[in-house]
Design goal:
Elements lengths: L10 H16 L5 H15 L5 E8 L2 E9 L5 E3 L3 H9 L3 E3 L17 E9 L2 E10 L7 H15 L3
Antiparallel strand pairs: 1-2, 1-6, 2-3, 4-5, 5-6
Helix pairs in contact: 1-2, 1-4
Amino acid sequence: MFTQINYEGPIADQYNALAKQLDALLTGETDRIANLSNASALLNQFLSNINWVGFYILQGEELILGPFQGLPACVRIPIGRGVCGAAVAKKETILAKDVYLFPGHIACDAASQSEIVIPLIKQDKIIGVLDIDSPITNRFSIEDQVGLEQFVKTLLLHL
């Protein structure tokens, strides 16, 4: 049974607690879709000031929409296009403080103002991305990036 907890203290401590809660939530489950679904739901209840959180799965030369929380989204994103596609092409996290200043931004939701995308890399292969949007510019900090990268490392143990 899932129990929602209050995350308190410094942001690094909150992300540590989040990663531990994710690990406990996914332990024993091997289904990728179920684990990505619960991971997106957990992030949705943890993060404030976001309007979309979810996953895109790499299939061939494009990202395909996976489990998410938020409004309906773009289904297919070519590698190299938008923030998600750029994160795959560069094999690194991209933090877009203002998506409208990001070259080639794909506006799935006009309300989104900032975005962070973390590649899911398992055995040196990108298998997808974690994508989080916010209706506020400059929503995501370096501390968020570090914490979300820790979250993804924990998630990858269960995929």
